Structure formats: C-alpha cells, structure tokens
Amino acid sequence: MKQKLIIVLSVISLLAVIGFMAYDLFLKDGDSSGNPYEYDLDNLRQVDENLICFNEVNQIKPGIGKLHALAIDHEDSIIVGGDGIIKIISADGEEIKAIDINGMVNCMDIDEDGILYLGMKDHVEVMDRHGGIIAVWEALNERVFITSIAVDESSVYVADAGNKIVYHYNHEGTLQNLIGKKDRPKGIKGFVIPSPYFDLAIGREGQLWVVNPGFHAFEAYDHEGNQISTWAKTSMQVEGFSGCCNPGNIALMADGSFVTSEKGIERVKIHRPNGEFRCVVAAPDIFEEGTIITDLAVDSKGRIFVLDSRKGLIRIFEEK
C-alpha cells in the first residue's frame, strides 16, 4: 500500500512540473521571442580597456587570396601563404620573394636552415626558400586534413583534424609515432575536434603543445608521445574559452606564454605558461564581425602577428 502511495505522489509531482513548464512556455505573459538559454555574444565582445596590453602598430597586405598560413624565420622575415602562392616579406614589410605553389597551403613552419615545411590538405611538401621542391610526403590515408605543422631540430609534428591525431616524423618524412591517441591507462583521453581547428606548437623546453579544442585544453607531450602536462580553462568570461572548439589557433612566446585566437569571437589573448590569463592582445571591436583569424605567429622581439582573413591582412601588435 505504501509503495502504491509513493508511485501516485510521484506521478502527481511529475504532472505538476509539466504543468508549470507548459505555463512558462506557452501561457506566461512577456516577450517570448528570445532564447533564455542563449548567451549574448555582444556582451562577450566587450573588453575592459585595462585588460588590453598590446597596440596594433602595422598592417601588411600581402595580396594573397584566402590567407591561411604564417611563419616567422630566425631573421624575423615573414612567410605567408594561401591559395596558390607563398610570399616572403622582410621584417620591415617589404616583399622579398613570391613563390607559386600548387594548391592551398593550410599551415607552415620553417627550420633553422630556412627549409619550409608546408601542410597542404592531405600531405606535407618540403621546399627551400627559392621555391625548389625538396620532397613531397605521401598522404597516409584519405581522411587526412592537415591543420598545423611544427618543426624542431629533429622532428616534424603534423596535426591531422580528419583523423584526430598528431603524426611525429623525422626530417626525412619517416613516421616515428602517433601522438594523442586515446589511452585511458596513460590518462590520454584523445582529441575531440568538432571542426577543423586543431593547432600545435613546440615549447621552450622542447615539449609539444597540442590544443584539444573540444575540451578547451592544452596538452604537452614528449617525443615518445607521453603526456607530461595539461591545463584547461572553460569559461564564458574573457579569461577562458567557450563554444564547441576553442582556441582555434595558438603561438608560443619566448617566455612560454600562449598566444591564442578563438572562433566565434574575434579575439586574441595571452595566457601565462601555467595557463593563467594575462591580458588581451586584440579585442573583438577592431575586427569586422565574422572575421576568421587563420593563424598567429610571434617574432624575436615579442611582436604578435595575426592573419585577418576577412581583410586579407597581416596585423602586427606590440606590447604597450
């Protein structure tokens, strides 16, 4: 008898909740045009001036369609690429050389000898500064979608958003191992990549930093693929990352700080090496709404370079 009474009371409670929900949704007076659960992007685009620590000091228009890839060499020359072309530009903004390529370059990096490693959609091409092709690496499978590449003295790391993995190659293009594959016993949860934003960079101590965008996380790995550090910051506030998959792009400063850009909110920020928010480089109000920041880079002077795809610009920022 007692059990039946409990069931009856539970059903009555459930019906009452449904009734209140129906009243709130359909009968309650007031403006019902908005979504009460939708966050206000206009508010998120507002940034306190005191949080902005950089000024924009220059803009370069390289004249490249679909700007997509950016790198800085050891002489602070700017290498920028897009649809069918790469340009080398001096630190003063003067064009040094234009190199025609076959297709769209998604990402690039340059080693200490000036050798360029180009991440095309499904393969890597190795090129000298004069445009001579040194090697073309074979695509591993049909799902490959390369979004980032980073080079150090012995390794080439390639982020593949299609297969949600990082490939570790030597400079000759021989695959050494895979990094970031889900491995619960080792505490590696695997990369969650809802859209083709999947960036990586090499840290000051030689560790590989990879963005796990679905978790708003940064993960550090050694050459063997062991995870050695991680941090994450999910927040609607300026000090964190929100949305399906952020940050979209990263670059590392000399002190180990992270420069980040986001998709959905046109914003560039700096986080300290431990992940603590430091400041804003570029607030959303200096970009056209809907701008996609396609790449970031930092030179030896600590200047930050931002690829503004909407205006076709390299935008340069210096610390105040």
| Average pLDDT level | 89
- Rg measurement, Å: 23 Å
The name of the CATH topology is Neuraminidase
CATH A-level architecture: 6 Propeller
| Oligomer type | single chain
- Strands across the major sheet, in which order? 1-24-23-22
Strand content: 35-45%
- Find the count of extended strands (DSSP E, 2+ residues): 24
CATH homologous superfamily label: TolB, C-terminal domain
Helix content: under 10%
Biggest sheet character:
4 strands, antiparallel
Using the coordinates above, name the CATH class.
Mainly Beta
**Uncertain runs:** 1-39
- Alpha-carbon distance between the termini? 76 Å
> What structural class is derived from the secondary structure elements?
mainly beta
Q: Count the helices. How many?
A: 2
Number of domains: 1
The sequence of SSEs as H and E is: HHEEEEEEEEEEEEEEEEEEEEEEEE
Shape call: globular
Concise summary:
The chain is mainly beta and 320 residues long.
Question: Any overview of this molecule?
Answer:
It is a single chain. The protein is mainly beta and 320 residues long. It has a single domain, classed as Neuraminidase. It has 2 helices and 24 strands. It has helices at residues 2-27, 41-44; strands at residues 54-60, 69-72, 78-81, 83-89, 95-104, 107-110, 116-119, 124-127, 133-136, 146-151, 155-160, 165-170, 175-179, 200-202, 208-212, 217-221, 227-232, 249-252, 258-261, 268-271, 277-282, 293-298, 304-308, 313-319. The strands form 6 sheets. A 4-stranded antiparallel beta sheet has the order 1-24-23-22, with no helix packed on it. The chain has a 4-stranded antiparallel beta sheet with strand order 2-3-4-5, with no helix packed on it. A 4-stranded antiparallel beta sheet has the order 6-7-8-9, with no helix packed on it. Strand 18 (249-252) and strand 19 (258-261) form a beta hairpin. The longest helix is centred in the N-terminal third of the chain and has 26 residues, at 2-27. It is globular. The model is unreliable at 1-39 (pLDDT under 50).
